[in-house]
Amino acid sequence: MNGKRLTIDFFHDVVCSWCFNISPRLRTLAEEFDLDIRHRTYVLQANRDEMIARFGSMDGAKAEILRHWAASRAASDTPEAFNIEAMREADFEYPSGMPAALACKAAEIRGGQQAHWAMFDAIQKAHISEARNIADAAVLHDIAAAIGLDADRLAADMASAETRALVEADRAEARRLQVRTVPTILVRDTGHRFVNGPLEDLRAQLLANLRLVA
């Protein structure tokens, strides 16, 4: 290879169980190949009304999404990390990903892409492994503090028009690129979109892209 550093757009939603599977695989590949990973917050349903419009009801939303969790668990490297029964029994409605997307962007404003990724992974763990309500501002505050971010500063940034605009810019970019599902992994240098799968499949796709730019 010629040492070319590929730029990867990772379109994700914190409530996406398939994103939960692919994020650690991308971390492995980023270390192996020195990838430039750009995190794009792509919230599929931004609020309760959008969830009801998509799934028919909030109960229907939880039931359908937990079926996705079960499929994701079957394809996961760490199936024990999926706490499906705890989320099924949780006494809150299944959360929209918008508050957590704002938290991830707020982390990015202060700490760049690595801070965004750290916040994204920590929120996903809280959501999928711990069945916490990640639409709750107090939960997001605790997560930020636990990974060493300035939680009070993050809360203020989450409420800012700048942060909201950055989240909406990512959603607009997804629409421009005709991204319709998460996760979507897009190689900016070649226009290739990864087919989601196990680590070895992702590695093979990455090597093919590196050959294209060699």
From TrEMBL:
Record Gene3D superfamilies: Glutaredoxin
Note the Pfam families from the entry.
DSBA
Q: Which InterPro entries match?
A: DSBA-like_thioredoxin_dom (IPR001853), Thioredoxin-like_sf (IPR036249)
| Ranges of residues in domain DSBA-like thioredoxin | 7-197
What superkingdom does the record give?
A: Bacteria
Give the GO molecular function terms: oxidoreductase activity
Q: List the protein's name.
A: DsbA family protein
Ranked from the top, the taxonomy reads: Bacteria, Pseudomonadati, Pseudomonadota, Alphaproteobacteria, Hyphomicrobiales
